Write a sequence for this structure.
């Protein structure tokens, strides 16, 4: 998390932290496992009032940021979300709001309901891999007279089963197209998926000749690749900030445990073998904070190294975060693998985020491409 | 004092003007750096004569930088510096990317030695040495480690005994990189054996080129002979060359080690930024992958990506820690976090290079291009985890000083140092 937030940013973070501590303490998060939606509408509306949903949207469209860099401000919320394994479609709703905001006057109503927290959104982007057991038709978006027709399958879609609107990124000929589809539209079938995350609701979504008015397009038909790329960057920045929050929670719990738990008449924290592992964990945790914040800053300012930093953040936090979590579970011993202990609530969030929007290996491969291109030029 | 420079900065140029002046000067005065130089880990690059010529070239560059007003960008004016904010040093480093620069003078001359001098030196000491350092006339070394043990720095047994207005030093220092071509050293000595170890140390400034300091070269695994051991026999040092108070050398020593850990983000060092030599190993690693014919191999690309990821994280963490320390949102002890990361990352990068070479890393020909010698680098990769204090010591500092975990039990608390059990001498 930001090392030296401004007083405004700190107040904003602190408000969300207090709200989440009160509304979704660990017992509540545990209880939500059996809640089909994973969060309550009034909880989300209250969060929207605290500013969770408008940071990536211009002021004249009902949003606004604290620092002028809305994405950086949003990482503060995301960090708190991770720290508390908080429920709610923070990442998808913001990603969709940001994209709609770029075409604000076309989608004013949807946008204002998202910003106000009356509605939530999901971004339908991932498709099952060709040749895999779950392989299905990729999403095709065609223009048919004055209608947009959506066909194909997306999965997994975070918040796919609860969102009011689905932003679908599909193919139109050679290009990418983004379209807004109401979840209730005819031809949309939502199949809930099981998930490691207690509060998140993922789904597989089939679009079968879903017909919508042309006004459902976000941007130009076939010209949506840039928007999708930007959305992916935003999503990664938010998910990294969340993961770092989750790692911080896991680490803090484990440090406290090391002081409380005694073996052979002394606290775990006094054994050099464990102290050294804590030092390694602290180092990768601080490294995660550092790269996540740097990536957020680079994306927010559209710096030329933004892509590279985003890949590095996603790859590092995914890879080293998983190791950190496993070490923390190990140091807890038997209690570390129980549902009763809070540790896993945060571990789940970090683990789910590890695989979304590109695995560490995919981002490493991309980094190699980026560096090679630069070295060659 | 923090690593940020004071508010008294003498800003007469905007950053952009400064950048333009720096660029013009660099372009017309410095050579482009040879991208194949300084690859690998402490490779013997040249004969002694060539090495001395390179040291001389770096002194000359330093002098030219001084004359052009680019030396000591963040050093106080009264000692010959420019006293500009840190951003100016960063701009200079950015412009320096891809050019030769006085690399041998940065560590340890500027950081930690000059930084320690600035912090603890008397007015007279600073006026004598800092301008000389900025002009490239004095190259400094750090004499901390001893044959009887380096991690336990405060257990130094090189002794200084008072003799009128002088001190007489006896003992031996070891693992001193580059002492054979250097001029001065900061030397940690024992001045009191009758108090606990940390309370009986004193730091002196010692000229290296004198008959009573015998400098021996030590060969490393790579064949490099930069390592040295010094034997000090009745070295006479005037009291005026004492740095800090008598028996309070540990205060100096802890700041000394702090500056050493922070060198990559120190405002006192000049290190080219970006992907040029020194700042990134990516050009080197791509060269190995290319020469090994593995540029299209997905396994190799995964490792290249990992290398860049680690480099960026290391850099970002260094920035975070240096900002944290400068703004007091982190304690000085957080420097150990950056130190641990850099040790682990650097050694991993070397391993990645060796991975690309297949069996040719173990048996090569000089015509093999970037593949040659990677095996030696692999053997040497541990230096990053040893030099500047081991990663184990960094882990101790992080767990104990940053996380507040119980200290390791030591067997020397509150007893006179002379009664403390010591290493058996090496046979
Ligand atoms: C390339 C290079 C350049 C160097 N340049 C200089 C220089 O210019 N000047 C200088 O003074 N020194 C220099 N050094 C020396 C370096 O600072 C020491 O090697 C280092 O501090 C370790 O000391 P040592 O070698 O005596 O190992 P020891 O202190 O004997 O340690 C041996 C091993 O035991 C471990 N260990 C020791 N104590 C503990 C503990 N309490 N807990 C856990 N593990 C422990 C260490 O981590 C290490 O693995 C250089 C070293 C290298 C490799």
């Amino acid at each position: 998390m930001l090392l030296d937030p401004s007083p405004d940013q700190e107040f904003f973070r602190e408000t969300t932290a207090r709200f989440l501590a009160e509304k979704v303490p660990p017992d509540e998060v545990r209880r939500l496992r059996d809640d089909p939606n994973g969060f309550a509408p009034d909880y989300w509306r209250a969060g929207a009032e605290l500013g969770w949903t408008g940071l990536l949207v211009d002021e004249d469209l009902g949003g606004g940021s604290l620092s002028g860099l809305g994405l950086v401000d949003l990482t503060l919320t995301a960090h708190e979300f991770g720290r508390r394994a908080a429920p709610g479609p923070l990442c998808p709703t913001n990603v969709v709001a940001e994209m709609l905001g770029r075409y604000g006057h076309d989608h004013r109503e949807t946008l204002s309901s998202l910003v106000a927290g009356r509605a939530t959104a999901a971004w339908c982007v991932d498709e099952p891999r060709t040749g895999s057991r779950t392989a299905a038709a990729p999403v095709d978006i065609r223009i048919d007279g004055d209608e947009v027709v959506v066909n194909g399958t997306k999965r997994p879609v975070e918040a796919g089963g609860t969102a009011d609107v689905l932003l679908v990124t599909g193919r139109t000929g050679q290009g990418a197209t983004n379209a807004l589809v109401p979840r209730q539209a005819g031809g949309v079938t939502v199949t809930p998926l099981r998930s490691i995350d207690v509060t998140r609701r993922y789904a597989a979504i089939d679009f079968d000749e879903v017909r919508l008015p042309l006004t459902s397009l976000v941007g130009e038909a076939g010209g949506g690749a840039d928007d999708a790329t930007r959305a992916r960057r935003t999503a990664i920045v938010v998910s990294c900030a969340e993961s770092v929050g989750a790692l911080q929670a896991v680490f803090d719990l484990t440090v406290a445990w090391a002081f409380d738990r005694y073996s052979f008449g002394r606290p775990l924290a006094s054994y050099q073998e464990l102290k050294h592992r804590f030092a390694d964990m602290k180092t990768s945790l601080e490294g995660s904070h550092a790269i996540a914040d740097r990536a957020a800053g680079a994306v927010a300012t559209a710096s030329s190294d933004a892509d590279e930093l985003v890949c590095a953040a996603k790859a590092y936090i995914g890879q080293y975060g998983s190791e950190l979590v496993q070490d923390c579970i190990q140091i807890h011993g038997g209690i570390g693998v129980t549902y009763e202990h809070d540790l896993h609530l945060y571990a789940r969030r970090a683990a789910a985020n590890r695989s979304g929007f590109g695995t560490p290996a995919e981002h490493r491969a991309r980094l190699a491409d980026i560096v090679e291109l630069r070295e060659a030029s | 004092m923090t690593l940020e420079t004071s508010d008294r900065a003498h800003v007469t140029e905007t950053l952009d003007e400064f950048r333009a002046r720096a660029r013009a000067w660099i372009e017309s005065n410095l050579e482009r750096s040879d991208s194949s130089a300084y690859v690998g880990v402490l490779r013997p690059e040249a004969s002694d004569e060539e090495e001395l010529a390179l040291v001389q070239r770096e002194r000359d560059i330093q002098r030219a930088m001084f004359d052009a007003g680019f030396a000591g960008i963040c050093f106080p004016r009264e000692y010959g510096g420019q006293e500009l904010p840190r951003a100016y040093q960063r701009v200079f480093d950015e412009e320096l990317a891809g050019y030769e620069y006085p690399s041998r003078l940065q560590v340890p001359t500027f950081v930690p030695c000059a930084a320690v001098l600035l912090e603890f030196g008397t007015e007279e000491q600073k006026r004598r040495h800092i301008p000389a350092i900025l002009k490239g006339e004095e190259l400094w070394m750090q004499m901390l480690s001893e044959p009887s043990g380096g991690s336990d720095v405060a257990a130094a047994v090189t002794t200084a005994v008072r003799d009128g207005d002088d001190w007489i030093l006896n003992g031996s220092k070891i693992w001193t990189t580059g002492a054979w071509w250097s001029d001065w050293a900061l030397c940690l000595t024992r001045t009191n054996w009758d108090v606990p170890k940390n309370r009986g140390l004193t730091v002196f400034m010692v000229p290296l080129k004198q008959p009573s300091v015998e400098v021996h070269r030590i060969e490393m695994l790579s064949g490099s002979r930069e390592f040295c051991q010094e034997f000090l026999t009745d070295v006479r040092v005037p009291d005026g060359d004492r740095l800090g108070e008598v028996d309070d050398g540990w205060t100096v020593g802890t700041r000394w080690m702090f500056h050493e850990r922070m060198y990559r983000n120190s405002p006192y060092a000049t290190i080219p930024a970006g992907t040029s030599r020194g700042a990134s190993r990516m050009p080197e690693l791509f060269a190995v992958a290319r020469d090994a014919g593995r540029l299209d191999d997905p396994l190799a690309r995964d490792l290249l990506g990992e290398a860049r990821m680690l480099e960026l994280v290391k850099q970002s963490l260094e920035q975070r820690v240096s900002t944290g320390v400068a703004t007091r949102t982190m304690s000085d002890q957080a420097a150990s976090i950056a130190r641990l990361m850099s040790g682990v990352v650097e050694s991993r990068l070397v391993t990645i290079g060796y991975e690309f070479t297949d069996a040719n890393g173990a048996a090569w020909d000089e015509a093999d291009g970037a593949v040659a010698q990677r095996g030696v680098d692999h053997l040497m990769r541990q230096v990053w985890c040893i030099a500047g204090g081991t990663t184990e010591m960094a882990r101790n500092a992080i767990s104990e000083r940053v996380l507040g975990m119980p200290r390791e039990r030591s067997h020397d608390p509150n007893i006179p140092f002379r009664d403390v059990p010591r290493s058996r001498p090496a046979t």
